[in-house]
UniProtKB/TrEMBL annotation, chains A, B:
Gene3D superfamilies: 1.10.1530.10, Hypothetical oxidoreductase yiak, domain 2
Source organism: Chelativorans intermedius
Family: Belongs to the LDH2/MDH2 oxidoreductase family.
Protein name (Swiss-Prot/TrEMBL): Ldh family oxidoreductase
Record-linked InterPro entries: Mal/L-sulf/L-lact_DH-like_ah, Mal/L-sulf/L-lact_DH-like_NADP, Mal/L-sulfo/L-lacto_DH-like_sf, Malate/L-lactate_DH-like
Ribonucleoprotein found in the keyword field: no
Record keywords, A-Z: Oxidoreductase
SUPFAM superfamilies, sorted: L-sulfolactate dehydrogenase-like (SSF89733)
Length: 363, 363
């Protein structure tokens, strides 16, 4: 991420396996059924392993609160409620967003196997988590995966003065022969909202034209920032248009809440289901052309991209390259846990009688 | 378009019907079969009616050159060459891009009617024209339409110092009850390349961070601009990622040329087919949820969007609103024809013995 300040130095690092086991145990102790605990953990660990910490294990405390408060059904009956050819609608029964979305992608992939393409609209879901985790499931099975979701309003329209769309991410994963998938996972806002919190805590000015004050005017003071700008700066109609596409696929096509109708993720209400929609799709390359030709095309494309000349001091990367490199580093060095998350984990560990994932020796 | 300078005042205005008839006659005289002439005219008239003049009748002279030179097959056998469930591959037989893409969308819509979704990869095609024209066909039939295409390299990667992707547009059209479709049609570059020509001819500086010189460094001098920046400015990895998604769907999934392998649109070679790929998709809302619920959702979304407070001196619009308003103005006032296109039209008219669409009285 071009404009991200450095990670604070007070993080602790924890091995992925230990961290995942802790999340599973905590979610189970909070009442989640095994499938919910597994799906929520898998999604958070995707974020934490790939360096997308905003959607990593930082969310565990939030998810426990949502499960215990009643916002999220801890033992949902997630099921396909209608289908037509290569598409379907899945009802998440107010369950965890990751459970619903992994299951929707599983069904989209099954449809894709039969029809070359499959799409599923998700109803009655909750917080989406890292969109890339869901798209990736398709790529791991040799398919192109797409996952989008709207979310509570944080982003103004182009020319707008109020929060309108959510950060409405678009994730797409494409299988790569002898390599890890091409993986795009981007908010349609200029920056993620939690980036503002980060600049605030570091006392640094925001990049230009990424956030607005309460009147919709651009501000570089993170303390004044009340909303995000759509992707594109002076050409923000493009970012707002993409956010709209996500909104239509996620919320309109599922009959769920539009961004400005969604209760804030942060509460205070943690008892009412948020009725989120989402949309996933899978495409099978070999349904369009010879599998070998597809593989050769991806190889040639990525090879040329990675060899393309860069501006001095800069680098060119394919979507996902930065994240996969970070995953390799974290596989060795462990996953950094920020101080606030450490505190939350200690409290959860104490409440549920579970050993925290970091030892008293600081390891 | 936020940063577009005003249209020069030396344009002539012509009624749409007269302009379309002229295009049809010229294309026919240049050897195009009736289907090619119709499709190319429909696509150009979409651009000219909606104010997307870069993809309007300005292209007629270019298309004649491509048809006569042999780059574009004037009497192609466009056909579906393979299919699997809800997807197919269409071979354009080196025909006109608009003919191939309208036909591909027609087939995608037929698949969509049977399976709720349909997608077609297009092979051996040529210049795409206005992507929105193809997406719109689906919306006019009550479906969500998507159309993407890669094109010859003009856009650097994020951090890149050379042209890599084409302007790789994304178009999506969504049906709106009692209204004209929601219509997004955007290049994944910061600005279109022809915008640079416009700034050049007007002697105005470019907006910041939209174009680079021959070394990939940002420049505001249109005479120095050698390539475009990806959408997103400091967050150009998003624009480059979206361009990559278009590249994969259009070129890799069709087995066609990657952007950097495509012969330049501007020639000098006008005899060799350019072997372009493209990708279209249609989704049927009623396959996902009750049709009335979808319509109500779109109405509520668009109503809220259009009523959303704007920043002082600015306006909020849904994708397509600006274009539909311009279409209304042009339906009354006529379509402006720039001086270079007037000259080209006079030459075409003289060569083919066809009456030009503007009278000698200047009308």
């Amino acid at each position: 991420m071009a404009a991200a300040p450095a990670t604070p130095a007070t993080d602790r690092r924890v091995a992925a396996q230990r961290l995942g086991a802790f999340c599973l145990a905590v979610l189970g102790a909070a009442g989640a059924d095994a499938a919910t605990a597994r799906a929520a953990t898998d999604a958070m660990m995707h974020g934490s392993c790939l360096g997308i910490d905003s959607h990593g294990v930082r969310l565990l405390d939030h998810y426990v609160r949502a499960l215990e408060g009643g916002r999220v059904n801890p033992r949902p009956s997630v099921r396909i409620v209608s289908g037509f050819g290569a598409v379907a609608a899945l009802d998440a029964d107010d369950g965890h967003g990751a459970l619903a979305t992994f299951e929707a992608m599983r069904h989209a992939m099954e449809l894709c196997g039969r029809f070359g393409i499959g799409a599923v609209a998700i109803r009655n879901s909750s917080h989406f988590g890292p969109a890339g985790a869901f798209a990736l499931r398709a790529a791991e099975a040799g398919m192109i995966g797409l996952a989008v979701c709207n979310s509570d309003s944080f982003v103004r329209l182009h020319g707008g003065a109020v929060r309108f769309h959510g950060t409405n991410p678009i994730a797409c994963a494409v299988p790569v022969p002898q390599g890890r998938p091409w993986l795009l996972d981007m908010a349609t806002s200029a920056i993620p909202y939690n980036r503002i919190q980060l600049y605030k805590s570091l006392g640094e000015p925001l990049p230009p034209a990424v956030a607005s004050d309460a009147s919709g005017f651009d501000t570089r003071d993170p303390h004044e920032a009340e909303m995000l700008a759509p992707l594109g700066g002076a050409f923000g109609f493009k970012g707002a248009g993409l956010a709209g596409l996500v909104e239509i696929l996620s919320a309109v096509l599922s009959g769920m809440k539009l961004s400005f109708d969604i209760a804030p993720m942060a509460g205070p209400d943690f008892s009412t289901p948020r009725k989120l929609g989402a949309f996933v799709m899978a495409l099978k390359p070999s349904a369009f052309l010879d599998e070998a030709a597809f593989r050769a095309g991806m190889e040639r494309y990525l090879d040329a991209l990675r060899r393309a000349p860069a501006r001095p001091g800069e680098a060119v990367m394919a979507p996902g390259d930065r994240e996969w490199a970070e995953a390799d580093r974290r596989a060795t060095a462990g996953i950094p846990i920020d101080p606030a998350t450490q505190t939350a984990f200690r409290a959860l560990a104490a409440r549920f009688g579970i050993k925290p994932p970091f030892g008293e020796d600081g390891g």
